[in-house]
């Protein structure tokens, strides 16, 4: 049976959400509470935005499933010889476009340089009425981070709004390092954002 079913999908906003000025990004503690409250079991794949899917390795290797979903573009957030080593050649018989990100799922990994290239890949595909499947090993941390970045960069959502939109249909959980990098992206995208002082950052971590 389809995992999509009749799930409600978020409606893309026509404009940027209205934020109080100066914009004050939520703390890591607040972000964790939003992400980890009332979690549900994670399915192999879910549509989290119109024509945008997040899933796990099992679906990434299931060409029949990908074909049935109508996937035209694949973003592998766990690419590499020692991770999920698929690549364009693996999908050659499907005729899909492939983009690989060799990200490690640990808090020290710098995923920030991949935010914009991944967002551009997703946006370009959706602009052409394609269907994008974003995955990592479990479809929770790395893929979740890149989809949140897309919604923030290309759809003008705040980080909190992006998390809420995705969680309507899938529970994700970027690790603490990725969350902080997404938080910094959130601040950089808000011209009226207020940077936390060192004292505030220390207080938040304590």
TrEMBL record:
One of its GO terms (molecular function) is protein tyrosine/serine/threonine phosphatase activity. InterPro entries: Atypical_DUSP_subfamA, Dual-sp_phosphatase_cat-dom, Prot-tyrosine_phosphatase-like, Tyr_Pase_AS, Tyr_Pase_dom, TYR_PHOSPHATASE_DUAL_dom. Residues 43-191 form the Tyrosine-protein phosphatase domain. It is an enzyme of class 3 (hydrolase). GO terms for biological process: negative regulation of MAPK cascade. Residues 112-170 form the Tyrosine specific protein phosphatases domain. Transmembrane segments: none annotated. Its EC number is 3.1.3.16, 3.1.3.48. Keywords: Hydrolase, Protein phosphatase. The active site is at 136 (phosphocysteine intermediate). PROSITE patterns: TYR_PHOSPHATASE_1, TYR_PHOSPHATASE_2, TYR_PHOSPHATASE_DUAL. Pfam families: DSPc (PF00782). Coiled coil: none annotated. GO terms for cellular component: cytoplasm. It catalyses: O-phospho-L-seryl-[protein] + H2O = L-seryl-[protein] + phosphate; O-phospho-L-tyrosyl-[protein] + H2O = L-tyrosyl-[protein] + phosphate; O-phospho-L-threonyl-[protein] + H2O = L-threonyl-[protein] + phosphate. Dual specificity phosphatase able to dephosphorylate phosphotyrosine, phosphoserine and phosphothreonine residues, with a preference for phosphotyrosine as a substrate. Belongs to the protein-tyrosine phosphatase family. Non-receptor class dual specificity subfamily. This is Dual specificity protein phosphatase. It comes from Seriola dumerili (Greater amberjack).
């Amino acid at each position: 049976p389809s995992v999509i079913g009749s799930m409600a999908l978020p409606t893309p906003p026509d404009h940027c959400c209205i934020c109080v000025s100066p914009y004050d990004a939520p703390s890591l503690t607040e972000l964790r509470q939003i992400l980890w409250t009332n979690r549900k079991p994670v399915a192999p794949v879910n549509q989290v935005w119109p024509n945008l899917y997040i899933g796990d390795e099992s679906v990434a290797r299931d060409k029949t499933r990908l074909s049935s979903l109508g996937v035209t573009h694949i973003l592998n957030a766990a690419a590499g010889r020692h991770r999920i080593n698929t690549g364009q050649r693996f999908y050659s018989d499907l005729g899909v476009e492939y983009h690989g990100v060799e990200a490690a799922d640990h808090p020290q990994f710098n995923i920030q340089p991949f935010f914009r290239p991944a967002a551009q890949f997703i946006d370009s595909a959706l602009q052409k009425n394609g269907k994008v499947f974003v995955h990592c090993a479990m479809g929770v941390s790395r893929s979740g981070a890149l989809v949140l970045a897309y919604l923030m960069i290309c759809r003008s959502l705040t980080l909190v709004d992006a998390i809420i939109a995705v969680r309507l249909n899938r529970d994700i959980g970027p690790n603490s390092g990725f969350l902080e990098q997404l938080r910094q992206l959130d601040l950089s995208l808000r011209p009226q954002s207020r940077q936390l002082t060192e004292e505030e950052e220390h207080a938040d971590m304590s």
